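Quick one, T. Sequence first:
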Amino acid sequence: MAIAALVDSAQLNSTELVPDQHGRGGAQQFDQAGLCMASLDPALTIQQANQEFFRRFGDSSAGVCGRSFRELVHPSVQQPLMRQFSRLVEGKRQRFASHVVALGPEDSAFAGTLTAAAVSGETPDVAAILVLMRSSENAADAGVVTSQKKILTEIDARILEGIAAGLSTIPLASRLYLSRQGVEYHVTGLLRKLRVPNRAALVSRAYSMGVLNVGTWPPKVVEDFIK
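Structure tokens:
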């Protein structure tokens, strides 16, 4: 079956993901240039993957299989993505597609499109999840800050969250017990740090870098990026 057909139907049987006695089949049958494929159990543990998946995440089968898929996803998109996976496992939907930022080797990151489909077993329960990922054109290291880089102070993070929520200087000053001049000082520092000209661009840049959590309101800075 073609990969597109598998995802569209979401009726793949779990036995189709198991290699034969010679090691053929399973995830390896889906090797296509630029397409990462993995089979997860209902706990989102990686059971199998194709060679492109191993190449993208810079590790061998032994290093990838057995890990949680969550570990390979950038913190800024983990929360909404895990919610969608939960609905899949609970049988509330058969498949979903989502933008994703994944973490590659040596602190690299790449953006792309993820499609996940529930795989049927011998019972009505979900037996496995088929994950397909294709990176966006020229998306490698697309300005995303990895979790190891702590770029904001606590006060910078709170100010960025306030700006993203639409607060102006005076409400921010009141909320954070700062003077107006103090708020402007930190805002200027943020603009310089993220290399943007104004507050609107600051928020956009923070989301694109993965500093602000996607799908969360009120806006929240990923804790890993706070010094």
